[in-house]
Specification:
Elements: H1 4-10, E1 14-15, E2 21-27, E3 31-32, E4 45-46, E5 49-56, E6 60-65, E7 69-77, E8 80-85, E9 91-96, E10 107-110, E11 115-120, E12 126-134, E13 143-144, H2 147-153, H3 158-163
Antiparallel strand pairs: 1-2, 2-5, 3-4, 5-12, 6-11, 6-13, 7-10, 7-12, 8-9, 8-11
Length: 166
């Protein structure tokens, strides 16, 4: 069985600013110019990017958002609880995992512009996933939530916002 330390070492994962660990595994060679992209992109974006993402029960991925849709793919370990606050203000919780009989799904899409955070609810465990973003991810498109601002905007979700922000 793989230990967290072994996975971190073998996959060469580094700490992610939102929490957890990651490594970019793919960035397409071709790109899209900003005039051909929707919304407020200020520079070109690669067609697609992908990362490994490892989360442990000792950490969480704090609420953040990006402009693009993000496709999550489950690889192993314990289910990952994905918490979403949609652009319309609705709260959703989805389980990314392999046990379909328990309502887990092995793949899930977070819509661009939705706030999302994730955690491992199982004790002493981890979840390993992949995340694919198109158009490709750039930290210019990344926004970490400010706890107070998010609570003021979505007061009905103050409990989960407080739990999953820093």
């Amino acid at each position: 069985m793989n230990s967290i330390e072994n996975i971190l070492r073998e996959l060469e994962l580094l700490p992610h600013p939102e929490g957890g660990f990651y490594k970019e595994t793919y960035r397409s060679d071709n790109s899209i110019e900003p005039y051909a992209l929707p919304g407020s992109y200020k520079s070109s974006r690669n067609f697609c990017t992908a990362i490994y993402f490892l989360l442990t029960s000792d950490n969480f991925s704090a609420f953040h958002k990006i402009k693009q849709d993000e496709i999550w793919h489950f690889y192993g370990g314990s289910a990952i609880s994905l918490h979403i606050i949609t652009k319309e203000g609705a709260y959703e919780k989805h389980l990314i995992g392999a046990d379909i009989s328990k309502g887990e799904v092995p793949q899930f899409v977070v819509k661009g512009g939705d706030w999302f955070a994730s955690e491992i609810e199982a004790r002493d465990s981890f979840g390993l996933a992949g995340c694919t973003v198109s158009p490709g991810f750039d930290f210019e498109d990344f926004e970490m939530a400010d706890r107070q601002d998010l609570i003021e905007r979505y007061p009905d979700h103050a409990r989960i916002i407080t739990k999953l922000t820093r």
